[in-house]
Specification:
The protein has 5 helices and no strands. The protein is mainly alpha-helical.
């Protein structure tokens, strides 16, 4: 597993990195919502671009959560045992988020791919929108709770964390 530079050398505290990643993921989720809305009303991206954007977002979110579950949360649990119930709850959220991501990707994969395809039937559009709305609600709640409970503890950590935690290659931050 790749790790960041030594903690003393880092420029940004881990809690601040968490907030930066969450901001970027929120922006990407808003772009995904906008892209889906314009596609469903017949004025925007074709399903191919929408599926590619969803796949990139889903992959980034999954990488971030995997880094948290595999490296960040164990480090926090060791340094702050009182946070274990919070970490367990957040890890449970990760499973729920992944389940929604799988359903959403399957729904998007089922959209007609031809540029001249008819509009998506209203029932199918509602299912896709509903899954995305559920994802947005869960992710926003999760991020807010995680930031409230973990930023201070993360900023005080003095151990290296996985590179994927900060998603530097995607966010540029």
């Amino acid at each position: 597993m790749a790790t960041t530079s030594e903690p003393a050398d880092r420029l940004t505290a881990f809690g601040n990195q968490l907030v930066d990643v969450h901001l970027w993921l929120r922006e990407e989720l808003a772009r995904l919502r906008s892209g889906l809305d314009t596609f469903l009303d017949g004025t925007g991206d074709r399903p191919r671009e929408l599926r590619a954007h969803c796949l990139a977002f889903c992959s980034a979110l999954t990488r971030h959560h995997t880094a948290e579950d595999g490296g960040v949360f164990p480090a926090l649990a060791e340094a702050h045992p009182e946070l274990r119930p919070v970490l367990d709850e957040l890890a449970h959220d990760h499973v729920q988020v992944e389940e929604i991501l799988v359903r959403l990707q399957a729904l998007l994969d089922g959209l007609p791919a031809a540029p001249d395809a008819p509009l998506v039937p209203e029932e199918e559009a509602r299912r896709v929108s509903g899954e995305l709305d559920g994802l947005i609600a869960l992710v926003e709640s999760h991020f807010t709770y995680e930031e409230k409970k973990l930023v201070a503890a993360l900023n005080g950590l003095s151990v290296p964390l996985p590179e994927d935690f900060a998603l530097r290659d995607l966010t540029g931050r």
